[in-house]
Specification:
It is built from 3 helices and 8 strands; from the N terminus they run αββααββββββ. It is α+β, with helices and mostly antiparallel strands. The chain folds into 2 domains: 3-52, no CATH class; 67-179, no CATH class. A hairpin with a 2-residue loop joins strand 4 and strand 5 (116-125). The longest helix is centred in the first third of the chain and has 15 residues, at 3-17. The chain is globular, with a radius of gyration of 18 Å.
């Protein structure tokens, strides 16, 4: 990365950190993000925004945690955070699939963590694959600012999806727009 690019990212980082004090619109980076090149790339879809770490400035919506919605969210989350789960010793990593395949199956269940209700979706792979079991669990009750708490975790190859025996975990919270298809255009979210 060039010194000029590092300086640009430093300036943008400062602007993001101080945007309220500077009275800068929350949307100032919604449309464009600078990559390690002289080109800009338009942020058009939910997936683009999630990968860029951009908050979409739109009215919060209550999204029911249907199987379809949590599948969309888990797919987007593993697209963003999946590389954090790679095991350097075995070169295995979790692989979330939106549908069953010949060598994988999706499962879901409702369970409790400290009296809070959660819903889980997972992809468990067969022994013949190099893929760990990939899971996401979403807290049924919304968290702060109506974001939804989520836990991502991995289990070993062909192991059942059990949080208690997770190899790695990641806890975060996500806005409602993670629960729509990742191809959804940002412009269409308010419709």
């Amino acid at each position: 990365m060039s010194a000029l690019t590092r300086a640009a990212f430093g300036i943008v980082g400062s602007l993001i950190t101080d945007q309220e004090a500077l009275k800068i619109s929350r949307r100032f980076l919604t449309d464009y993000i600078l990559f390690d090149s002289e080109e800009t790339r338009t942020i058009q879809t939910v997936e683009d925004a999630a990968h860029a770490g951009i908050a979409i400035d739109t009215k919060p919506k209550k999204i029911p945690l249907s199987p379809e919605a949590i599948t969309h969210a888990c797919e987007t989350l593993y697209g963003v955070y999946g590389s954090n789960f790679i095991n350097p010793d075995t070169a295995t990593s979790p692989d979330f699939r939106t549908e069953d395949t010949e060598f994988s199956k999706n499962t879901s269940e409702k369970f409790k963590i400290e009296s809070a209700s959660w819903i889980r979706i997972s992809t468990q792979h067969e022994w013949e694959t190099p893929n760990q079991t990939a899971s996401c669990a979403f807290r049924v009750e919304n968290g702060a600012n109506d974001d939804i708490d989520v836990i991502l975790w991995s289990n070993g190859v062909a192991e059942e999806a059990k949080l208690e025996s997770a190899l790695q975990t990641l806890k975060t919270s996500v806005p409602w727009w993670y629960f729509v298809p990742k191809e959804s255009r940002i412009m269409d979210l308010d419709k």
